[in-house]
Give the backbone structure.
Amino acid sequence: MGYEIRATQPHEWQQRRQLRLAALLDPASSVAFVNTYETEAAFPEETWQRRGTTPGFVAVNEAGEWVGSATVLVEVGAAFPVPQTHIVGVYMAPEGRGNGLSERMLRAAIDWSWELPEKIGRVRLWVHEDNARAQAFYARLGFTRTGETMAFPLDESQTEYEMELPRPS
């Protein structure tokens, strides 16, 4: 089966909602998200429409169904050490796992980051301490731990690690 990797569009907020809610129900993603299904299922349409305007990338199968997505937050200004993008909400449905599709999708998000008019200094993300598979995946893409940590929002006794990919020279 062939898959297309492409940028999301604001009018596709319903597909974004559908995949996000499916992701929140996926047991394999229990430590990948900082919200619960119950919380996000209760969001009004306006919240989803607003989320739809945030840059992101999606993996789409031949039937036009979204099977993976990643959102890219652009973080520039005095609040950030360097202009950067922050990849959040990474998810790949079971049908897209183990075939390189996640790597293609993340590379699209990374490449997009480097092409922004604002010279982005790094791409960053947070990964849960118990998500060894995601940590290894991001390391294969060149991400390394920065040494920054934070408490996992759903259980503050758990830790998330910041990982970064510096801009290539």
In short: Strands lie at 3-7, 56-61, 66-75, 84-92, 122-128, 144-152, 155-166. The first strand starts at residue 3 and ends at 7. The longest helix spans residues 101-115. The helical segments are 13-25, 37-41, 45-51, 101-115, 132-140.
